[in-house]
Amino acid sequence: MSKVKQGITAKDVAKLAGVSQSSVSRVYFEGATVSQKTREKVLAAAKELGYRPNEFARSLITNRTKIIGLVMKGVQNPFYPQVLKQFTTAFKKLGYSILFVYTNNDEIQKDDIDTLLNYNVAGVIITDATLSLQANEDLFNNRIPLVLFNRKIVGNKFFSVCCNNLEASKQIAQYLLKTGCSNMIYISGNENTSTSKEREKGFVTVLEENKVKYKKYISDYTYEGGYETIEEIVSQGKIPEAIFVANDIMALGVIDALKKHQISVPDEVKVVGFDNIEMSAWPSYSLTTWEQPINEMVKRTVDYLTAEINEYSGFTKNIEIDGRLIVRNSTYNS
Amino acid sequence: MSKVKQGITAKDVAKLAGVSQSSVSRVYFEGATVSQKTREKVLAAAKELGYRPNEFARSLITNRTKIIGLVMKGVQNPFYPQVLKQFTTAFKKLGYSILFVYTNNDEIQKDDIDTLLNYNVAGVIITDATLSLQANEDLFNNRIPLVLFNRKIVGNKFFSVCCNNLEASKQIAQYLLKTGCSNMIYISGNENTSTSKEREKGFVTVLEENKVKYKKYISDYTYEGGYETIEEIVSQGKIPEAIFVANDIMALGVIDALKKHQISVPDEVKVVGFDNIEMSAWPSYSLTTWEQPINEMVKRTVDYLTAEINEYSGFTKNIEIDGRLIVRNSTYNS
DNA sequence: CTGAAAGCGCTTACAG
DNA sequence: CTGAAAGCGCTTACAG
């Protein structure tokens, strides 16, 4: 335990600048008033000494931090690193840092949140998971605003930001109907996720209205899951005319498995994904998909959190943002 | 600014438990001695009140934190999310949290590091970038241990952890020679990176020893970069017998571009990548590549940092860990 | 083993 | 606009 004190404090700067420690503090505290002269003297002294205000002392008094806790599960799905990048960039501009928590749980538990509470984070984002009652209570009691990103919980007890999954999957069904398909399959993600449920619901609703046959296969939002589902479908000899896959990364597995069995996409089977991850545009896949409006989703999340940090209201709502269909070769032979 | 004090402090717990505030502190401070009776009384009271030690007050005194700063550039390359996941998991077990910094710079600047210094992080990892002199000086002056992960700077002034890029690329060259190729291309990543330089050097050294013709194309470690480089090569009519691509994500772009021009892999051109990202195993690519031993690389990084945190020595070394060649269909038609 | 007290480096009323 | 002083919630010598 040899860490030595850096030892340059506001006191040191004050001495060198010939002002009080309070004045030094005021220079670094947004909103405080200092004369131009004092400011200059302080900044000069600070620069000479290499002064840096201690965030911990600061937070101890203000009981506020400039840290946002970001809890993420699916780092394996390229959609989420993109989300991570955007959140980091957006919050950096606002002077916030990201405390990153990786989790394996579909439902965030108390101990995943504990770290964040210990650091008294200003806000929490959970990107692809929900959270346990206890975990939520801990956040609530500490008045820490929370956003569920790309997940929602039934009811209006959380602020969530998703794309409009229901409407999106309806439009996907309508698009596939228009291309003349009449025998379809839905491949789900993890069944307990709101995204998979809603994408199923929208899709199925339209198919049933149009009296079109469909079948559902349960998978898990991974490439391997998509791949193996096709193996199962092929082994049962139940190749449909179109497959709606609950996310892109699974859809890539679906396409690769179909290729392996020399089932032509889109001639024999049309495939539609969801997310518009970078890879869906790669020529090996050229996947028709639904673009999630990440920019807008991130913006809404950031706006809500900064507002709640500024003045806590506990306001909750399920925000849904429209995306758009991106047609590529997996449904349309150009 | 309506955030209300949670207000449950060691003092409150002390009152309820009928002990002094110091005793409460001792229960939560590892290494302090408390009697079993006191401990029980304190824990009971703490549980009743929902007490949680304030990390900021703690860090203010100890001048140490349980935070590791992780600076990452290439979140778009699937190699790095995997690295992020492993670091988060490893440090969580040790009670450390990750402060995540995303950067666009190949060379980390002072202001990227500033946040980390403000939070007095216990250690810093930079995964795919180097750092400016000033940034390094700031870390050094504050005795904050640093690891360059998957990058190194010439000389021995930093602790870096890489795979053995030189040896790996030599073996890749030897492997390609054995398959009978005699006219090769190296597609580089960003030219200022140590990884790209070393992979080039190892590859070229062996080719020159064997008097084999090669050409170098400069690219940028992205899928698009790989794709466009092939467009250039094709337009020049200079298709080689084998291409060594400095990382996998570029190699996928290379394969897709070759496919587009109906140049058969591996029959007409063999392709080798580097990293062994998940996608390289996907059947659409089946890319021969070099497996970076992420587990071991992460372990060595974590071991070094924890040792330096425990007792700072400033010790530096370039650690290089062996990987292995993974042969797939992009070089070998089974 | 335990308590009273000093102090970490700041912010923030309070006077002037 | 500025300074002296109190205090944020802890850890840590120091006595006992």
TrEMBL record, chains A, B:
Domain of life of the organism encoding this protein: Bacteria
SMART domains: HTH_LACI
Gene Ontology MF terms: DNA binding
Domain HTH lacI-type: 8-62
Keywords: DNA-binding, Repressor, Transcription, Transcription regulation
SUPFAM superfamilies (alphabetical): lambda repressor-like DNA-binding domains (SSF47413), Periplasmic binding protein-like I (SSF53822)
Protein name according to UniProt: LacI family DNA-binding transcriptional regulator
Organism the protein comes from: Psychrobacillus faecigallinarum
